[in-house]
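[09:14] KT: can someone run the structure on this one? pasting the chain below
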Amino acid sequence: MLQSEKHRAQQVLFYLVLLVPFMMFTSYALDTLPVINEPSLKMLAQAIVLSIIIHGWLRFVLETGNFKGYLGVDGIKKLGIGALFGALVALIVVVLDNLVGTKSRVFNPALLSSAFFRVLVSSIIFFISESYIEEMVTRGYVLEQFEEMHHPHRAVIYSSLVFVLVQFLWDRPHVNLLGWANFYVLAFFLGLLYLCTKAKWLCIGFHTAWNLVFTTLFPVTEVHSTHFASYVHMESWLTFVLLLLLAGVSLYRFEKHHAKPEKKRGLEIVGSRAK
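[09:31] RB: done, structure tokens below
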């Protein structure tokens, strides 16, 4: 390993060792504070803390200091496009679930009551904040550094493993082996989506809508009156097949566009040698 690659690897390791335990401690501290009782506000507070940490990392460790540029431009537009995409994919799973009969999904009755606005707004805040945290930790700095050190394929593989590890340490979802496989495939797809678009907000939007549809809009049972950490949709073969299909299409598109500059560069080298 080259010295620069070794330095990058050490930075990524230090970043994760510093960040993940600190965010877990922040989550625990917010849970024990009687001041904030609303889960969405607790998650929003964690997102703000993460932003401060990343800004400090960019400014004092990497010495770039451009947090706004790091997030990317047209954030609201890309967040919206990603959300529409994620909602469409999630709704396809919902429809197929009901048609095939593997799981019974109904529209959340809480959204048909007077609590509609409170539940929906609270859920949106919660899932945008949660998705922002997970995407910035795994598809942000970590994936970018892995991409600089390795081939993009390996970068996605490694960052997806980090995503699964963060899920295990942070949320500790009670899912079976298929559920963990779906977590990995989802991370793999989102990693490819980021490499194809270089848009963090697009991934955040997809991730937000994906969680919102399954957990708030169309839960498996009728007991969900607000957002809960329900991972039943991750224990579905339909989810696995659809995510695998999305990952395959994204991989094809990435290979198609990534191969063009490589081919062009190769032709330029051959041309220069011919001269």
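[09:33] KT: thanks! Residues 94 and 105 are 7 Å apart (CA to CA).
[09:34] RB: yep, looked fine to me
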